[in-house]
Structure formats: structure tokens, C-alpha cells
User: What shape does this take?
Amino acid sequence: QVQLVESGGGAVQAGGSLRLSCAASGRILSINAMGWYRQAPGKQRELVATITGGGSTNYADSVKGRFTISRDNAKNTVYLQMNSLKPEDTTVYYCNAAIVNRDYSVMNYWGKGTLVTVSS
Assistant: This one.
């Protein structure tokens, strides 16, 4: 059984910073792409940032220059450093990972989400 556990969410004032972490555990052979998504109430889940196993990154236009995604392959962990936060960044953030299981099957996993609240 594979689990993704997020941490680091919380409340911050506009202009502040937060760092989200997501650790994958379980019967993992390797991890391909990892990423962060967010979903506001009544809206579709949207991509925030992704990072491949080789370290290539992709960002939503709304967070470019403010957020940085990184990963530690030895720890099966992905991070999202969020700077210059804005009230519109307020929502639940979800971790995602494409994991190669011990039987070589590849499955997409989601964390349960962590709430980020940015006050003006």
C-alpha cells in the first residue's frame, strides 16, 4: 500500500512564505513525476507545479517566479516552496505522484491535501 502524506500547510499573511512537503511511503520501486495541485471549493483541481524524475519542472503561470518545486529522491519526498503568497493562493493543496510499484505497475496516487490560508 502506497501513501502520500502532505505537511506544511497553515495560515500566513499576504507576502509571506510556506513550504509544503509530501512524503511517499510503502511498496515503492521508484517514482516518476511528482507534483502539486490545488482545488478551491466549486472549482476543478488545477496544476500548480510538477517535477519529473530527472528534475525538469513545470509551473502554472499564476505561480511562476513565486513557487519552487523540488524533490529528494532518496527520501521519496517532493517540496513546494511558496513565496510572495497572495490571498488568491488560499485553498487546499494536493500532492500527486506516479509511482512504480514493486510489481512494476505504475499507478497515480494522491495525498489527502493540506490547507493553505493567506490573509490580506
Q: What stands out?
A: The two ends are 41 Å apart (CA to CA). The longest strand covers residues 28-39. The mean pLDDT is 96.
